[in-house]
Amino acid sequence: MDEDYVKKQEATIRNVLVKNLMESYVPFPLDKKIATQWAYAINVPRGGSTIIYTSYMYQMANVFKSYEKYVPTFGSLGSSKIIASIGAKLIKPKEEDIKRFNAILQNIYRIVKRSNENIGYLYEEEPYSGSLLYELGFMDEFKEYGKKVFELFKQHKVSNIITIDPHTTNTLTNLKKYIGFDIPFTPYLNLIKEAKGTGKFVLHDSCLYSRFLGMYESIRTTIRSAGVELVEDPTVTGKGAGFCCGGPVGPLNDKLSNEIAKARAETLTSVNKDVLVACPLCYANLSEFCNVKDIAEVIA
Amino acid sequence: MNWSQIISLVSAGNYMEVEKILQDYPYIVDMADHLREQKLKVIANLDTYVKRTMDSVEKLGGHAYLAKDKDEARKIIGDLVGEKKTVVFSKTNVAYEIGLREFLQERNNEVWETDLGEYLVQISRGWPTHIVAPALDMTREEAAKAVKKIDPSINENSKIEDIVAAVRKFLMSKYVKADVGITGANAVAADSGSVALVENEGNIRIDTVMPPMHIAVTGIDKIVPTMRDALDEVMVQAAYAGIFPPTYINVTSGPSSTADIELRRVSPATGPKDFHLVLIDNGRLEASKNEDLKEALLCIKCGRCYFSCPIYRTLGKEWISTKSPYNGPTGVMWNYITNKDPWPASYCVHSGGCKEVCPMKINIPEVIKYIKFIGSKQVGK
Ligand code: SF4
């Protein structure tokens, strides 16, 4: 491995991330109009005690995927204003991606609304959870930023959070452990009761849901109960045999991240041609190499 | 076959094989759980156990040493071996950790690895790819090419059996004149001073009984409270490595001995007259006192976590490279313990398969996260 490159890259990412998060609660400049339009379109109530928490993960998945590519630009720039203007130009999701994540977010919202009528959303004021800080090992910064996120939720009088992706769920689990974040949270997949779906898939487990958050079995039950067929092969989808989409190493080494995605896609498609994922980053990484759908695209 | 094809095949094979072994021999899982508890006791009190082990070895008529680092270990073993000797090595990762083979060679000794995989790595001037299967990345053709150097009758069309036979013939010529056999240890029993080793080839048996001197070199993490634990450890290691029952389990308790005349135990008998145990600290003691790191010392080096790791499966030995003989998830922990090198941890994608398959139930991602954190503190602001 190229140690010197890793050190340089880590330093730049940390500086960029911390600066952006501390100033504006997002990991890099992003167009919040685009990120929140899904909710405006269906009139999701603003605020409220129970909220759906996107943490911008579906909206930013493709940018995260190419993070390594953006980092040198970020690193060579000076003030945050310049980053903001250049960043805003750089970081605009493609039309088709916008359409896709809007549909997914709206579907998830409709699904969770069945179990609770009063679910709000923080719109532009929603903070990014800080997953990337945690996952890159920047623990001091993670805790510091986590406290800000916790405060923000308290200011908005949030008392119940519905998460919609594994990274955010895992991050809140760790905020609970490290800074005493005590607002209850539940992944939307655990709230699904009467959803319907069709199709035959091989499930690519989210590492975090299935191997860290104890949802390996429950995710399968949820999907199957909706009427979706899942094909299993213990050497590919077994709890200890399945592996990551490569996403988390993307910021440090895009090539390595893609090689892992390619290898994973090959093993998955040896079981079934269509692949199902539970995480927007898995989608972004794997969709270059196989036919992928998010759970929220096949059940409703 | 390229690396990605080899590793996919081997990983799936190992996964199913271990699952089957655990079904056929269900008591292995209980043994692993018990072993974890016993090893935790040692980690909590490593100094005491080191002393107990050394005393037990001395009582058997053997000699025990504690080396605090690589230099000390090399010096102790270098003095024991001397110069212009023939030395046969069984596969030992600790020897790689301290650069022992090269050190002894520089002192005009003839040194041969006797484990087939390790031998192939030695003659092709490579570096081990996996702790249990060092030549995992070598195809039959590549192995044949390497062995051709010592036996011209081998060529790229030779069968695996012929390659193995050629190596056997070569090694036999070295065993008969070997002065010293150097092995590692899968476990060392503190109560009896016994060293337990597991293998399939038979080379460790020869290395431990044929030369007049046997030196076992291992880390203090391999100490377990009792002889029973030592035998548990070899069984569990073999099962999770995917080869069970193992062909041979070897136990060495001091130099060879006999009690055949008047039931009085005397040494030596047919086997070695000298037995030395060299225990190596090299960061382990410090790790045992670090709450975030100490679980790593439970590792029994079965190598199973390698197969569930996406980074290892993609990069192979290039991940940690020649910085350490330990690679894969456990290698990230062990390279840090022994070299204070946090950087390979940066690549960890917290896939989590490692902790699912680990017989010692080490929360490997959590330990790696700590190492990542140490690295992040060293990154320039
Ligand atoms: S960490 Fe666990 S799985 Fe990996 S080599 Fe050690 S004992 Fe085996």
UniProtKB/TrEMBL annotation, chain A:
InterPro entries: Cys_rich_dom, HdrC_iron-sulfur_subunit. It comes from the Archaea. Residues 202-286 form the Cysteine-rich domain. GO terms for cellular component: plasma membrane. One of its GO terms (molecular function) is oxidoreductase activity. This is Heterodisulfide reductase chain D. It comes from Thermoplasma volcanium (strain ATCC 51530 / DSM 4299 / JCM 9571 / NBRC 15438 / GSS1). The lineage of its organism: Archaea, Methanobacteriati, Thermoplasmatota, Thermoplasmata, Thermoplasmatales.
TrEMBL record, chain B:
Pfam families: Fer4_8 (PF13183), LUD_dom (PF02589). Residues 289-320 form the 4Fe-4S ferredoxin-type domain. InterPro entries: 4Fe4S_Fe-S-bd, 4Fe4S_Fe_S_CS, FTHF_cligase-like_sf, Helical_ferredxn, LUD_dom, LutB/LldF, NagB/RpiA_transferase-like. It comes from the Archaea. The keyword DNA damage does not apply. GO terms for biological process: lactate metabolic process. It comes from Thermoplasma volcanium (strain ATCC 51530 / DSM 4299 / JCM 9571 / NBRC 15438 / GSS1). GO terms for molecular function: 4 iron, 4 sulfur cluster binding; oxidoreductase activity. Keywords: 4Fe-4S, Electron transport, Iron, Iron-sulfur, Metal-binding, Repeat, Transport. The keyword Glycoprotein does not apply. This is Iron-sulfur protein.
